[in-house]
Fold this protein.
Amino acid sequence: MKPIGHKLDPSAERLEWDLTELSSFRDPDRSGWTREVFSDPYRQSRQWMADRMRAAGLEVHVDPAGNIIGRRAGKQPGAPAVVTGSHTDTVDGGGRFDGVVGVLGALEAVRQLTELDVQLNRDLLVVDFLGEESNDFGLSCLGSRALAGELTAADLQRTDRTGTTLGESFSGFGIDPSAAVGVDWARRTPLHSYLELHIEQGPTLEQRQLPLGIVTGIAGIERLLATFIGSADHAGTRPMGDRQDAMVAAAEAVLAIRREGCGAPNHGVATTTRVEAASHSPNVVPGLVRMMSEVRSVDAKWLSGTRRRLGQEIQATASSYGVDVDLAWSTDNELVQANEEVQEIAASSAASLDLPWTAIPSGATHDAVHMASLAPMGMIFIPSHNGKSHCPEEWTDYADIAVGVRALAASLINLDQHAFQT
Ligand code: GLV
Ligand code: MN
Ligand code: MN
């Protein structure tokens, strides 16, 4: 592979063109480059994506879970496929690179293989997974979750803030929800391996001036939907010592959650992302407040203790204000380790191209979490400018993306030949 590896020369210009085109599919009424799952811009962008896959020579289909799959046939029909890809939906107010780099970078890798006349033994599948970002339903990675058999009928009953169910959203997007839950091609047909290219979304690589990170593991995520039930009252007349103010109890919980994150021994973070009073009036003591928070870590022991510690503290503080709390926890994803052999292949491929790298944990979640239950999984990170992500300032230089694509393409060539020991 070494001679071919050194000939790999992905085009930063082609990557820039593709990324710029895709970023034009955005919600004009939201900030940044918003292209949320089930939205019109997302629907339109998927047609463009399927066309770009075809233009790169891939045979394209959309599976029952809404994943767009481009196949490059290998020399050995029936051999378990090597899979790469990521997602093209964004968060509200998000950027242009998160996920997109893994799909459009994979297409550039495919073009490179074709230009260099490299035929792999195995099929190579490039997947644009449906709806990776966590949404109003509180569930991330819809497409990869479904593929792994981890999307349940109960999940389809989750509602967003308008009361629409996830199942109804699937139907409105032209996907039969029961077919999505039942999608099983990836469990019926063994897959050989999964390798995803992604921006780091944090500051480590840039600070250490390294072009590549090889991911060791992906943080687990515990989500909390808390409802604080106090007593609505007149804000001008109810004395301060005689209130059951749900907002104050929620505010204490926000700070408790922050303290929990600050106390994590290894990589651990805790964030409250939304606090909403039921009444929108400016002169009402809030009687009902809903709060959304999440806790993440690559330290399973610490993470498993967070529900108990936070539950006790939030309940006790709320009751000191005369407020009741309902705490609904759910695990968005368990902590997942990357496969060691995939890490070694990515590392040796990078080293063979004289590209320095570091081992790095991922605090963000990825489709790779769910693909790990289907095949040996790995990820390659490239630097994020100022470590910023999930915001309009998210940026990675096109030349840095091209370096990531070189490492991805070389790793895919090596993975194709690899017989896993474990
Ligand atoms: C996805 O980007 C997540 O980490 O929530
Ligand atoms: Mn992502
Ligand atoms: Mn993201």
Remarks:
- The two ends are 23 Å apart (CA to CA).
- Residues 220-333 form a domain with the Alpha-Beta Plaits fold (CATH 3.30.70.360).
- The pocket of glyoxylic acid (ligand 1) is lined by residues 133-134, 140, 364-365 (CB under 6 Å).
